[in-house]
Design goal:
- By secondary structure, this protein is an alpha/beta fold.
- The protein has one domain: 3-Layer(aba) Sandwich (Cobalt-precorrin-4 Transmethylase, domain 1).
- It has a 5-stranded parallel beta sheet with strand order 3-2-4-1-5, with helices on both faces.
- The radius of gyration is 14 Å and the shape is globular.
Length: about 150
């Protein structure tokens, strides 16, 4: 069975994220943010891709698998059931389905991949919903990484 990792950088530094990715043997980081910019140093798309390249990890941004604006607002407000509803509806769109298939192809290739988003808690983030949707396409185990030294969440 293939394993996919997920990671949130909310409470982490770039070195902590890179350490967690290396420890998990990640070869491909898939950025699943709709907006790949960040107020946190080093996590905007260009800087993140450069830091990953320097660490020997490939970067792929699949914007269409990010959360729509109304889903991000629900998440910030702690309305996780609403986020789930909005995101699952979004995943049914043709654009999201095309990118989900692109993600599935990357995972099927055997490369160790990790989904990245901001939210530290995977159960409060769309990346967990995305991993569940991906598991409908191929046999998959999900490993939630915690970069700030909190340990893993399986």
């Amino acid at each position: 069975m293939t394993t996919i990792a997920t990671i949130g950088y909310e409470a982490a530094t770039v070195p902590q994220v890179l350490d967690a990715l290396h420890a998990a043997g990640v070869e491909l980081l898939v950025d699943v943010r709709a907006v790949a910019s960040s107020r946190r140093p080093g996590f905007s798309k260009t800087q993140l891709a450069a830091n990953l390249a320097e660490a020997g990890i490939e970067y792929l941004h699949l914007r269409g698998l990010g959360t729509p604006a109304d889903g991000r607002a629900a998440a910030r407000a702690g309305r996780h059931d609403e986020l789930r509803e909005i995101y699952l509806e979004h995943l049914g769109t043709p654009g999201a389905q095309a990118e989900l298939e692109q993600l599935a192809a990357q995972v099927r290739s055997g490369r160790r991949a990790c989904l990245l988003c901001l939210e530290a808690q995977p159960e409060h983030c769309h990346r967990s919903l995305l991993a569940e949707a991906l598991a409908e396409h191929l046999p998959l185990a999900v490993r939630h990484l915690a970069p700030a030294g909190d340990g893993e969440r399986d």
